[in-house]
Write a structure and sequence with these properties.
Its main location: cytoplasm. By secondary structure, this protein is an alpha/beta fold. It has 18 helices and 13 strands.
Length: 403
């Protein structure tokens, strides 16, 4: 790509670029010298699974990776013990070291559904933050003052309302900034809610003899409810580890966002070019395509990214068949062949109705599984020979031929 095309591609979908002129200069230097930029993104392992909201940043990492730059997927196992104060009206309870490590392991597995493992550096910030001496921490703390910290909205609101601010919370943005110092980051990516933390890194780097990093922020993805940001706690999320059919079903059936939010999904969650998205907007406005058609396409593209094109096609077929079944055409459900005599809990995993054996056991014991309309609560139940309709919850339905 030419420099301006390179710049446009990397900043596509971004909200803040601090600063665009610096990024252009840094990209030009990288092209001239052959030295790739170091692009850093930090994730605190506060939950065990990644969802599509997380992937907005990870996809931007992929864009830098595609342009030949060095991407560092930084797991904040040290900062996770402090607790990010972003969006908090009170001190965040710190995670235990065991919970941080368990979540970090799953992050590392899931991120390579998007990034190239051969071209991704995975690092943990405990590697350097855990070895800082008392003198090092004093030197780091000296780079920022309390007035600067109170420019952060959450801190200011809590200070003005008399809510306590623990001193260790000030260490969080400083620690994140020091990550950039240690890694000698050229660029740091983050969500718009991370702008303050990202700027702290930019501010302190010159004190360590380094040029200030460039900051790119991406929007916070609106959840399926069309109102709040995507969040597991709000139940408006699509997990990237979910079965293909469940992912597509959520996007097709649970999406309640406006047309504007749907176009945001196309922009932030697919590789379609702006021109291709504009063409779909034109066809939608003219009535040549429907909102349902677009949601199916969106779901198919997203599922294909994480499970492959064949799985995406099969998921679409199953979801469309289920829609037909709800309209009185149950025989339209695709018939899947399985081995007779298998434990039901193993069949549930094989069919994508459960993500693991333990998940299948939980669904069975909680009465969430029906076979031909009858609740099965025995975890030792087997699927005998014949044609059966197996249902998980209210929506996941599969017809099988066991032989």
């Amino acid at each position: 790509m030419e420099l301006e095309e390179h710049l446009a591609y990397l900043t596509r979908g971004c909200v803040d670029v601090v600063r665009a002129a610096d990024l252009r200069s840094r990209l030009a230097e990288a092209q001239a010298s052959g030295r790739p930029l170091v692009v850093k993104v930090g994730f605190d392992p506060t939950a065990p699974d990644l969802h599509l909201g997380h992937t907005v940043l990870i996809r931007k990492m992929k864009h830098f990776q595609e342009m030949g730059h060095t991407v560092v997927f930084l797991i904040g196992d040290f900062t996770g013990l402090i607790g990010d104060p972003t969006g908090r009206s009170k001190t965040r309870p710190p995670l235990t070291a065991e919970a941080v490590q368990a979540n970090a392991d799953t992050y590392r597995q899931q991120v390579f559904r998007i990034l190239d493992p051969e071209r991704t550096i995975v690092d943990f910030n405990s590697r350097w933050l855990g070895t800082l001496t008392s003198v090092d921490w004093v030197k780091l703390a000296a780079q920022y003052n309390v007035a600067q910290m109170l420019e952060r909205r959450e801190f200011r609101q809590r200070y003005d309302s008399g809510q306590p601010i623990a001193l260790h919370e000030f260490l969080y943005p400083l620690s994140q900034g020091y990550d950039s110092v240690f890694l000698k980051a050229d660029v740091e990516l983050g969500g718009t809610d991370q702008l303050f933390n990202l700027n702290v890194g930019r501010d302190i780097m010159p004190a360590y003899g380094l040029p200030a990093q460039i900051i790119l922020t991406t929007p916070l993805l609106i959840g399926l409810d069309g109102v709040e940001k995507m969040s597991k706690s709000l139940g408006n999320y699509v997990g990237i580890n979910e079965p293909p059919e469940e992912m597509l079903r959520k996007i097709v059936e649970q999406f309640r966002g406006t047309d504007e939010v749907m176009w945001m999904y196309f922009t932030l969650l697919t590789d379609l070019t702006p021109a291709a998205i504009a063409e779909r907007q034109r066809r939608f406005a003219s009535g040549e395509t429907t909102s349902s058609d677009l949601r199916y396409e969106l779901g198919r593209r997203i599922v294909a990214d994480y499970h492959g094109a064949a799985a995406a096609d099969a998921a679409e077929q199953a979801v469309r068949a289920r829609h037909a079944a709800r309209q009185g055409h149950g025989d339209d459900l695709p018939l899947q062949s399985i081995e007779a005599g298998l434990l039901l809990r193993k069949v549930l995993v094989e069919l994508g109705l459960a993500v693991s054996g333990s998940d299948a056991t939980r669904k069975i014991t909680q009465g969430g599984i029906r076979v031909d309309g009858v609740v099965v609560s025995d975890i030792a139940a087997v699927v005998g020979a014949g044609i059966w309709t197996i249902q998980a919850g209210k929506r996941l339905i599969v017809r099988v031929h066991a032989r």
